Amino acid sequence: MMKGVCFLVTVALLALASSLASASDPSPLQDTCVAINDPKDGVFVNGKFCKDPKLASADDFFYYGLHIPGNVTNPVGSMVTPVNVEQIPGLNTLGISMARIDYAPYGQNPPHTHPRATEILVVLEGTLLVGFVTSNNENRLISKVLNKGDVFVFPIGLIHFQFNVGKTNAVALAGLSSQNPGVITIANAVFGSDPPIDPDVLARAFQLDEDVVKDLQSRFWWDNN
Fold first, then answer.
1. Does the keyword Translocase apply (predicted)?
2. 83-99 per-position pLDDT tens digit
3. 67 belongs to an annotated ligand binding site
4. Residue 47 to residue 51: CA distance in whole angstroms
């Protein structure tokens, strides 16, 4: 009887381990999988076609320009310079990317989420108020003021933001755990969707007058990415 129970427990544990393993991204099975847009003679892997590894070159793994400040003269007062698989095709299947974020005085990287990545941010210059909000039903704000050299982590999928509380420009670098982390800016997605969400839906959801919702939907929602 005991042997039978042990056998069933072992089978259950192996099944659980198998399900957990299959729930994560597989490790690459080749050294490189440089992304190409032309499917001719390519292999489709992780959202991109791969170049023949024998044809890979140094330029496939190179990006120039991250030292150049982004233009922050816009309504939100910030600019994100992404360095993901679109800029470095050699990042395909490697599960990592980065970005530079520039902030004007009192500029912000508005509340947004990365559906496919955890983010780790380091402040290079200035002072930033940063934070993220936990999921329902708690919706707890976890926030901190960061100075030069400070590091903060935003868990995958959670709404987060950065706000320059200083009187001078600020700069940060972010590392992300995906070659293509994606970004959903909350205000843009909710009030700037195409086609628009029914105003009655948003009026009820946000407990606003429908005319207020229509006014918000009529505005131009700046994309700082």
1. no
2. 999 999 999 989 999 99
3. no
4. 13
